[in-house]
Design a protein that fits this description.
CATH architecture: Alpha-Beta Complex
Strand content: 25-35%
Number of domains: 1
Helix content: 25-40%
CATH topology: 2-enoyl-CoA Hydratase, Chain A, domain 1
Distance between the termini: 11 Å
Order of helices and strands: HEHEHEEHEEEEHE
Number of strands: 9
Structural class: alpha/beta
Shape: globular
Length: 162
């Protein structure tokens, strides 16, 4: 691991009094990825390596992803600590917002962002044969202003000190 990054994580661990895990998904091309269930085995390996600890801080940057991932991810992290906090330096949108809401504490900067949750996919509406693609598409049909789209292009990385 890069010595600079290692030093910054170590410094953050000392200042927060916790073990730090980073979960970053880039919003820049050409590395498309997003929060998804396939990150669970990586987190499991990481948590196994740090063992049960008093406090875990998740350093999180993401434009979002699969809404099936936050619940099992947060539950798994909570199995390995007494206190769980999420540090948001900038963006924690959609699925990342859900991860943050699962923490005991959310640490934000003046630039930090959380967002509404917009499930992606096709959903059958009960009692009708009509389908909707998302909550946003439904709100747009009733005259709400068009939401600003966020890039879902990302690169995923998880780092912890061993």
């Amino acid at each position: 691991m890069n010595k600079l990054i290692h030093g910054q994580i170590s410094s953050l661990e000392k200042s927060r009094g916790s073990r730090v895990i980073t979960y970053l998904t880039s919003d820049r091309a050409p590395f498309p990825a997003q929060i998804a269930l396939d990150v669970l085995p990586l987190f499991y390996q990481t948590l196994q390596s740090i063992k049960k600890t008093k406090k875990i801080s998740l350093f999180l940057f993401s434009t979002g992803g699969n809404l099936d991932a936050p619940w099992p991810l947060v539950n798994m992290i909570r199995e390995y600590c007494d206190e769980f906090e999420v540090i948001i330096p900038f963006k924690a949108l959609s699925a990342a917002t859900l991860i943050a809401l699962g923490a005991n504490k959310i640490v934000m900067t003046p630039l930090s962002q959380l967002s509404p949750i917009d499930p992606e996919g096709t959903f059958l509406m009960e009692g009708t044969s009509r389908q909707m693609n998302s909550a946003i598409s439904t709100s747009m049909r009733v005259g709400a202003p068009k939401p600003r789209p966020y890039s879902m292009v990302s690169f995923t990385a998880a780092i912890t000190l061993g």
